[in-house]
Amino acid sequence: MKNVLSPAGRRSLREFAEARVLLAFDFDGTLAPIVRSPDRARMRPATGRLLQRVAARYPCVILSGRARADVRKRLCGAPVREVVGSHGAEPRRPPPGMTGLVRRWRRKLERRLAAFPAAWIEDKTYSLAVHYRGARDGGRTRAAIREAVAGLEGARLTGGKQVVNVVPRTAPHKGLALERQRRRLRCDRVIYVGDDETDEDVFAGGRSRILGIRVGFRSGSAAACYLRTQADVDRLLGALADASPRRRAFSSAKKGRPLPGPS
Questions:
Q1: What count of other Cβ atoms lies within 10 Å of the Cβ of residue 236?
Q2: Which of 26, 28, 195, 196 is labelled catalytic?
Q3: For residues 80 and 23, what is the distance between their CA atoms, to the nearest angstrom?
Q4: pLDDT higher than threshold 60 for residue 253
Q5: Would the pLDDT of 234 be above 90?
Q6: Percent of the chain having pLDDT more than 90?
Q7: What's the rounded Cα separation, in Å, for the pair 219 and 222?
Q8: pLDDT digits (tens, 9 = 90+) for 135-166
């Protein structure tokens, strides 16, 4: 992995930015700092302004573990083309039966984890996140959560930062969801920025087409590049906005309307 803000990393960034490229971002830990309570997650004002600039110059999408509607209200009006929620599981038209399956999971987990008050369930309609941030015995609580979710019907489990994500096995992961967006928007390449285990499905998609940028160096990651800290996301957004001064802003009339803001 190379630092994407190093001279070599910036060359790779410019090469991708000169192509018809789709920019894609995770939210928590990428566009916004990780916070103790998910409800308090916010982009810094500077990040919001930079995202607005970048989204006016390139087609942009957001892929988050959050619910789609939750992410939309946190984007400071940036004209992104799409938001995909629940780690790829929440499309515009979810398959029948998915919400009922997630409700059944929640009821079972509430019973199985009743003895672990530090574990709390975030219901995102199309997936669940079982958090244990703040648990005094994090290892024991995490083991109890994994044991509780292991027997859930039709579930796919992924780890995260003091969270276990539970997603329908039939739902697309982030890599598949992003490929659908790339094809829909008729882009040749993708620059994707993420920070978590669920983002590895994107990073593993192939370096000829995807420039994966991980927030925080991690040995063994499939990402080609990294940023040292989440604060460096602002420097990356600035570099993208300035990568090709000749690039014309994408016309929403010709390329598809940007995602409307929350009503």
A1: 24
A2: 26
A3: 10
A4: no
A5: yes
A6: 59
A7: 9
A8: 878 788 888 998 998 889 899 888 777 888 89
Residue range 49-62: mean pLDDT, rounded: 96
pTM value is 0.83
**Measured distance CA(189)–CA(200) in Å, rounded:** 17
- Is 123 among the residues known to form the active site? no
Q: What is the DSSP string of the chain?
A: -EETTSHHHHHHHHHHHHSSEEEEE-TBTTTB---SSGGG----HHHHHHHHHHHHHS-EEEE-SS-HHHHHTTSTT---SEEEBGGGTB-SSPPTTHHHHHHHHHHHHHHHTTT-TT-EEEE-SS-EEEE-TT-TTHHHHHHHHHHHHHT-TTEEEEE-SSEEEEEETTS--HHHHHHHHHHHTT-SEEEEEE-SGGGHHHHTT-TTTEEEEEES--TT---SEEESSGGGHHHHHHHHHHS-TTPPPPPHHHH-PPPPPP-
Residue type, 170: T
